[in-house]
Design brief:
By secondary structure, the chain is mostly helical. The chain has two domains: 3-94; 105-296. It has helices spanning 3-19, 22-51, 59-72, 74-83, 96-117, 126-145, 154-169, 183-205, 207-213, 222-261, 266-296. Helix 1 runs antiparallel to helix 2 (22-51) and helix 5 packs across helix 7 (154-169). The radius of gyration is 24 Å and the shape is globular.
């Protein structure tokens, strides 16, 4: 029995009991238990079929089952959302783009743990060398844009770039989709960046100093510069989120249309274009936050 699923069910039941009523908490617990039993039954079935010589199950089907069911617990999630006033279909309580985000996070964490165990100074592997090149690229970019003290922000920028890149290319895998083709995902990433660089600005200048930072160096123009800078700062959310969303959404749409019209050779070219756009957009989503951090922590506006 998966212990993490049991722990999640117990925590969710306790939270529902505190926030709602015992009746709703009981419904959440029952739904969670059915979800766990459903996963165990499916897992056992897949194992039996894969070990039987007479039956062959496509690997894509196995991956799809093992990815969707451990993350879903649809009935339990639907009960919890109902407590919050959100009505969701128990069969699809968790949108696909959220499942894809979770998958991207799990992949990044798993790869990082594996890479950490295999780190070697004397005999670095090919994957370690590739990641070292990527790290040096992010360090160079942040040093060039932010300047002194840029090492503090490398982890954030690198993680953000890896997450966006992986989310961008997930749609190339059959049965999966590109989560960054949804505005909810790109807006969430933009909000995280917005909060991060403003926090760094407040940390560097202090609350009052950071507000004065928006007023500009000319005191008698502060009444005009301050609201313009505030509006410009807020509109960065729109700039970050819509740019990535529009590129990935339109790219996926064009790929689907041209693949349906000309199913020979064109899909390969469109997939190559998709990979190219994915790298470009991931780079831009690292570049712009670095610029915003540089502006927020600058001594002079």
């Amino acid at each position: 029995m998966p212990c993490w699923m049991v722990a999640l069910a117990l925590v969710g039941t306790l939270a529902t009991l505190i926030a709602a009523s015992p009746r709703v908490a009981l419904g959440f617990l029952v739904g969670a238990l059915f979800g766990i039993l459903n996963y165990i039954w499916l897992h056992q079935t897949v194992v039996v079929l894969m070990n039987t010589g007479k039956a062959r199950v496509p690997k894509v089907t196995v991956v799809k089952i093992l990815l969707r069911y451990p993350m879903s617990l649809g009935g339990a999630v639907a009960s919890l959302l109902r407590v919050l006033g959100i009505h969701a279909d128990p069969a699809h309580a968790i949108p696909n783009y959220i499942a894809m985000e979770v998958l991207a996070i799990l992949v990044i964490v798993s790869v990082a743990l594996v890479l950490r165990r295999r780190l070697s100074v004397e005999q670095p592997g090919k994957f370690q060398q590739i990641m070292e090149v990527a790290l040096e690229f992010v360090q160079g970019m942040s040093r060039e844009i932010i300047g002194h003290g840029s090492e503090r922000y490398v982890a954030m920028l690198g993680t953000l770039g890896l997450f966006i890149l992986l989310c961008n290319v997930l749609g190339l895998i059959p049965t999966l989709e590109t989560p960054t083709g949804k505005i909810q995902v790109t807006l969430g990433c933009a909000v995280a960046v917005f909060l991060y660089y403003n926090f760094q600005g407040i940390r560097h200048h202090g609350p009052l100093g950071y507000l004065m930072h928006f007023a500009g160096p000319v005191w008698w123009m502060a009444w005009l510069i301050f609201p313009v800078e505030i509006i410009s700062n807020v509109f960065r959310l729109l700039s970050l989120s819509v740019r990535l969303y529009a590129n990935m959404f339109v790219g996926g749409l064009l790929e689907s249309v041209f693949t349906a019209l000309i199913p020979i050779a064109v899909p390969t070219a469109m997939m190559g274009l998709h990979v190219f756009v994915s790298f470009i957009q991931a780079y831009i989503f690292m570049l712009l936050p670095a610029v915003y951090i540089s502006i927020a922590t600058a001594e002079e506006h």
